[in-house]
Design a protein that fits this description.
The protein is α/β, with parallel strands linked by helices. The protein is built from 18 helices and 15 strands. It has a domain at 88-106 and 222-423: Rossmann fold, CATH 3.40.50.1100. The strands form 4 sheets. A 6-stranded mixed sheet has the order 3-4-14-9-10-13, sandwiched between helices. It has a 5-stranded parallel sheet with strand order 8-5-6-7-15, sandwiched between helices. It has a two-stranded antiparallel sheet with strand order 1-2. Bound molecules: pyridoxal-5'-phosphate.
């Protein structure tokens, strides 16, 4: 399998290079040359998650990693999940399901991709005799999940920038209490956007990028999207019938993975794209026009995003894979904050497949409360946005008798304040993190200044 850039001018590359590159040199995102078809093997519904994962992902990996070796990598990646099912399908009402994706080490669905990405980096870099410096910005969940994924890689160093005082205590501690010498959390005196701008500036500095061998694991990295395709497939195989998925959405990575599963032949009826008050996608699905606003903080901070970077992969498809047209549309969007898709493109790719639904903080709280009353279950605010959207949509956008699966993207203990406020209950951290709040922290603070950050990064290379 070869990969092409959504902006059409970067050369085709294979799986290993896509893994290490993250972003294409032309500023685009890598996508496979074609969408492979799913093959249902023997007893797929009861197969171990890691084994089915290796089967589902194998066409994307192609010949670049031996199939047996890849299977072993998958088994290792999913060996430290607290639930053996990894992605656990739970019925909470009549035809209403949660797909629990938070049983990994850092309690958010991002572990499912980043545990695998860490193992793959280790494997590919060892084979090539190379090392990399991963730099990234995090608004909370990516930092901890990326650290945990690469903490044991001897050929990877990682620096994550986060906005000082704007991530939750649990999120910060998941980054600052690790003792591995290769992980570095840096508090930046600025916002998440400032952090992201610093990372972009480091990548745009070609000399710095090459001399430090910079690499990225943010959600535009193809391998993260690929790993997320799997749980849509396994959930449907367990359910045994068609379903709608409601997906709490920020960068559009998770819901895009579902759309890819559908392209591959998974029996998905459609998607509810769930947003909080940062509802650029909801407005797009209503008006066929993307219009960026200011970001407002909400109870579901990992979805506080206005420009969903992974949406570019869908735009590329809507443009019939015309890279030049996609590049133009996205450069214009940066300037004008406006993007429109054609009537035909909308009909062919969006209508009947995606609907957008939004949910404000008041509804988020009410949904957490409602679920606790109905079933005694605690859900996190991101999951609550997804479930509220699902409940708005069932019987309106989709027939009521089609099962609705909401992706539960974080463990409630990751957002204890919101959960406590809504339900009066304090969710408990799982045993491996029970002493998190008492562990010693190790973090550096830096000004919002490129030179300061670059010299810090250069000093972290071992
Ligand atoms: C990252 C994140 C999301 C958003 O996922 P995208 O792939 O960016 O759409 C939703 N919920 C939680 C808990 C997250 O950490």
């Amino acid at each position: 399998m070869q990969y092409i850039s959504t902006r059409g001018s970067a050369p085709k590359i294979g799986f290993q290079d896509v893994l290490l590159a993250g972003l294409a040199r032309d500023g685009g995102l890598y996508v496979p040359e074609q969408w492979p078809k799913l093959r249902s093997g023997a007893q797929t519904a009861t197969k171990q998650y890691a084994i089915r994962a290796a089967e589902v992902m194998s066409p994307f990996v192609g010949q670049e990693i031996d199939a047996k070796v890849f299977e072993v990598i998958c088994v290792e990646a999913y060996s430290n999940f607290r639930d053996p099912e990894v992605a656990k399908l739970v019925e909470i009402g009549d035809g209403e399901y949660l797909l629990e994706l938070f049983h990994g080490p850092t309690l958010a669905f991002k572990d499912i991709a980043l545990q695998l990405v860490g193992k793959l980096f280790d494997h590919v870099l060892k084979r090539r005799g190379e090392r990399v410096m991963i730099v990234g910005a995090t608004s909370g969940d990516t930092g901890g999940a990326a650290f945990d994924g690469v903490a044991s890689c001897s050929n990877v160093d990682i620096v994550m920038l986060y906005p000082q005082d704007r991530v939750s205590d649990v999120q910060r501690r998941q980054m600052t209490t690790l003792t591995s010498p290769n992980v570095h959390a840096v508090a930046i005196d600025g916002t998440f956007d400032d952090c992201q701008d610093l990372v972009k500036a480091m990548f745009n500095d070609r000399k710095f990028r090459d001399s430090q061998q910079l690499s990225a694991v943010n959600s535009i990295n193809w391998v993260r999207v690929m790993a997320q395709v799997v749980y849509y497939v396994t959930a449907l195989e367990k359910l045994g019938e068609r379903a709608v998925f409601s997906v709490p959405t920020g960068n559009f990575g998770n819901v895009l993975a579902g759309w890819i599963a559908k392209q591959m032949g998974a029996s998905i009826e459609g998607f509810v794209v769930a947003s909080n008050r940062n509802d650029i996608l909801t407005r797009f699905f209503e008006s066929k026009q993307m219009l960026a606003n200011e970001v407002v903080p909400t109870l579901s901070p990992s979805m506080d995003i206005q420009v969903s970077s992974n949406f570019e992969r869908l735009i590329f498809e809507i443009n019939d894979r015309d890279g030049a047209a996609t590049a133009k549309q996205l450069t214009d969007f940066r300037m004008t904050k406006k993007l429109t898709v054609s009537e035909d493109g909308y009909k062919k790719w969006i209508e009947g497949v995606f609907v957008g639904r939004r949910c404000d903080d008041r509804q988020t709280m009410a949904t957490m409360q409602q679920v606790f009353k109905e079933s005694g279950m605690l859900i996190d605010p991101h999951t609550a946005v997804g479930l509220a959207a699902a409940r708005q949509s069932a019987g309106v956008d989709y027939p009521k008798d089609v099962p609705m699966i909401t992706l539960a993207t974080a463990h409630p203990a990751k957002f204890p304040d919101a959960v406590r406020k809504a339900t009066g209950q304090t969710p408990k951290l799982p045993a491996h993190l029970a002493d998190l709040m008492g562990r010693a922290e190790r973090s550096v603070s830096l000004p919002n200044d490129l030179t300061a950050v670059q010299s810090f990064v250069a000093n972290c290379r071992r």
